[in-house]
Design brief:
Residues 7-310 form the Cobalamin-independent methionine synthase MetE N-terminal domain. Helix content is 42%, strand content 11%. By secondary structure, it is an alpha/beta fold.
């Protein structure tokens, strides 16, 4: 076997510790930076990342995990599988970004969630006419770049099985094209061996979901073929986000040298019991790559020593790429000493990997001080009073099923029709409007003390008045206040709930250049005071039209936070749901009659194995209904879902019992409506009629066509008209043009229906 490595991570973040890549990419899009300057930023970030890993003691460094947008899009480029519609764009980089974002004349690829994470990937489009061809320039270039500075490079590529299973293919079964792309992987392995690469990592996370017997046989066949090549690096097949299940013995019986396993979301016992594991180098993912809690070093070492007794050899690894956690705790000065001692961000996790590797090679005595610190942190966390709020726990214990139910939907529909008096096909937006420079300046000025709270409120009110006036001018039927005071739909609420902490620089990539700062749920969640009424009441005072209040639902708040791992997620969800329930009651008392509780992450947290899904859906739906069932029949509850494959949770969407569900549908061409009808969904629905993640301005004709398509599946009295998602990231002129066309299209279709 090729000399085995001892310490690694499965991937690294790429946005930069201070979001350098985000700023550079957006400058390139704006025409303020050329391609060579953008590449200079990218190169600096790559080398900085690799150097940090080597300096920390990592002896096998992942490369080709850097991306200007998305790793699945990079794989499509590597395999020559970009859609034909971008082929006319001369610049390779612009062609790449056109596939990601679209242009005025080119529609982008669809986008959806990467397994059960909040990262979004671009969905490749593969048809029978797709002509694959290897384009290894990026991966070979990064390998050369790393080896030149002495980095022990292990290139990482998405595997052929995962690539095809996650691609969109309407005219054939996903894996039908394996025979076309496996030779390209074989050629790539040959080229990597020529470049001096010792190990290559091939990511196959799709194998941790339920897979059919033919899919498992295809996987075994693929790696039999690749492993028997005469000239190649050693192969590490990497999985993450769960157990490999029956795929583990299928891989273990091939001649691949290594398998990376997730021992945080997966089971040590499953790996230890796998036949054939004794002949493999196992990268043991004992350091959590998806959450921010400090590792239990004693427990991790116990697992590593158990595995070492069974496997051929063992390396310490993260459970998945560090793409999903912030770079470092450095600069998080707002943390109290206790909370800080419980946490580990990316840099700290890298050091944990190196620490455990040292202990595994030389014994626990070599890390005695680190073990003492790990135990002390666990003890202070377990005894901290913020983790146990008796009042909240008492309320939850006293809940009854009646508090998760509303009056039957037909009765509510009648009451709301009388209360709101809306036209056929009412128009609205999802919540946020463009975050202007003035908004960002005011927020920064408040943070640094340049302005006081009163001046900040005055500026935000001015933004709200502007957005309300715009919506009145456009002729929208149900307005929103635009959310100028919210930097993020989860962080805003987390900052006002006890039990959460918002970081100063804990940025994580969501998609492309979009970054979020997930808050940290460390204790029991409680709402000390109302969170939104001041802003919504002001907006409502400016118009006679109904203003829709926008809240974030309990499942999404948890999904887009780093959550405590010391109690079941269902208990945390109900705690947050009680806070949202109290907010809806206060909003209703203030006169608000439309309340939207967003749950875009409902699909995101769905367990990857079917056997685990019913329990999750039961508590997720229960938490939403707890949050929304405390209002009168005359108050309309809306919800919003976006950018996920909804087929697996269609029944749960109906179970939410929201009066209106707005849902992403533009990139997927209204496909979700047929799924809703299949489960008897008979509530209001607003399928998105244009894609807000693309800079395109849709025409009246295009939107009218989407509405006609929707009316083929939805009765007119149930249909709402809205964009796919919030408008926060778009420009004012683009938004105004798009919404004006949307309203005109709605009027056109209303006229067609009398």
């Amino acid at each position: 076997m090729t000399l085995a490595f001892t310490a690694t991570v499965l991937g690294s973040p790429r946005i930069g510790p201070r979001r350098e890549l985000k700023k550079a990419v957006e400058s390139y899009w704006a025409g303020n930076l050329d391609a060579s300057a953008l590449e200079s930023v990218g190169g600096d970030l790559r080398r900085r990342t690799w150097t940090e890993l080597v300096d920390a003691g990592i002896d096998s460094v992942p490369v080709n995990t850097f991306s200007y947008y998305d790793q699945m899009l990079d794989t499509a480029v590597m395999l020559g599988a970009l859609p034909e519609r971008v082929s006319g764009i001369e610049s390779e980089l612009d062609r790449y970004f056109a596939a990601a974002r679209g242009t005025a004349t080119v529609a982008p690829l669809e986008m959806t969630k990467w397994f059960d994470t909040n990262y979004h990937y671009l969905v490749p489009e593969i048809t029978r006419s797709t002509q694959f061809a290897l384009n290894p320039v990026k991966v070979l270039g990064e390998v050369e770049e790393a080896l030149e500075i002495g980095v022990p490079a292990r290139p990482v590529v998405i595997g052929p099985v995962t690539f095809l299973l996650l691609s969109k293919s309407d005219d054939h079964a996903p894996l039908d094209r394996l025979d076309d792309i496996v030779p390209l992987y074989a050629e790539l392995l040959n080229r990597l061996a020529d470049a001096g690469v010792k190990w290559v990592q091939i990511d196959e996370p799709a194998l941790v979901a339920d897979r059919t017997a033919p899919e498992l046989e295809a996987t075994r066949s693929v790696y039999d073929r690749l492993a028997t090549l005469n000239h190649r690096p050693a192969i590490l097949v990497a999985s993450y986000f769960g157990d490999l299940g029956d795929a583990l013995p299928a891989l273990a019986e091939t001649r691949v040298e290594g398998i990376a396993v997730d021992l945080v979301a997966g089971s040590l016992e499953h790996v230890v019991a796998a036949p054939g594991i004794e002949g493999k180098h196992v990268a043991a993912g004992v350091i959590d790559g998806r959450n921010v809690w400090r590792s239990d070093l004693d427990g991790s070492l116990d697992a590593l020593e158990t595995l070492r007794d069974r496997a051929g050899s063992v390396a310490v690894s993260t459970s998945c790429s560090l793409l999903h956690v912030p770079y470092s705790l450095e600069g998080e000065d707002g943390l109290d000493r206790a909370l800080r001692s419980w946490l580990a961000f990316g840099s700290e996790k890298i050091r944990e990997v190196a620490t455990l590797s040292t202990a595994l090679r030389t014994g626990r005595a070599a890390i005695a001080d680190q073990l003492v610190q790990s135990r002390a942190a666990a003890e202070t966390r377990a005894s901290d009073p913020r983790l146990h709020d008796d009042a909240i726990r008492g309320r939850l214990a006293a809940l009854t099923d009646a508090e998760r139910r509303r009056t039957p939907a037909p009765d509510r529909r009648t009451a709301q029709a009388t209360e709101l008096s809306l036209p056929l096909l009412p128009t609205t937006t999802i919540g946020s409007y463009p975050q202007t420079t003035a908004i960002r300046v005011a927020r920064a000025a408040l943070r640094t003390g340049e302005i006081d709270q009163a001046e900040y409120v005055r500026r935000m009110r001015a933004e709200i008045a502007d957005v309300v006036a715009l919506q009145e001018d456009l002729g929208l039927d149900v307005l929103v206040h635009g959310e100028p005071e919210r930097s993020d739909m989860v962080q805003y609420f987390a900052e006002q709930l006890d039990g959460f902490f918002a970081t100063a620089n804990g940025w994580v990539q969501s998609y492309g250049s979009r970054c979020v700062r997930p808050p940290i749920l460390f204790g029991d969640a409680r709402r000390p005071k109302p969170m939104t009424i001041e802003w919504i009441s002001y907006a409502q005072s400016l118009t006679n039209k109904p203003v829709k209040a926008i809240l974030t639902g309990p499942v999404t708040i948890l999904a887009w936070s780093f959550v405590r791992d010391d109690q079941p997620l269902a208990e945390s969800a109900d705690q947050v749901a009680l806070a949202i329930r109290d907010e809806t009651a206060d909003l209703e008392r203030s006169g608000v009659r439309v309340i939207q509780v967003d749950e875009p992450a409902l699909r995101e947290l769905l367990p990857l194995r079917a056997a685990d899904q019913p329990a999750y859906l039961a508590w997720a739906v229960g938490a939403f209904r707890l949050a929304t069932s405390g209002v009168a029949d005359t108050t309309a509850i809306h919800t919003h879902l976006c950018y996920s494959e909804f087929g697996d949770v269609i029944g749960a969407i109906a179970g939410l019992d929201a009066d209106v569900t707005s849902i992403e549908a533009a990139r997927s061409h209204m496909e979700v409506l047929d799924d809703l009808n299949a489960v008897g969904f008979d509530l209001g629905v607003g399928p998105g009629v244009y894609d807000i993640h693309s800079p395109r301005v849709p025409s009246v004709k295009e939107i009218a066509g989407s509405l006609r398509a929707a009316l083929g599946a939805v009765r007119p009295e149930r249909l709402w008209v809205n964009p796919d998602c919030g408008l926060k990231t778009r420009g004012r002129a683009e938004v105004e043009s798009s919404l004006r066309n949307m309203v005109e299209a709605a009027h056109l279709i209303r006229a067609e229906h009398g």
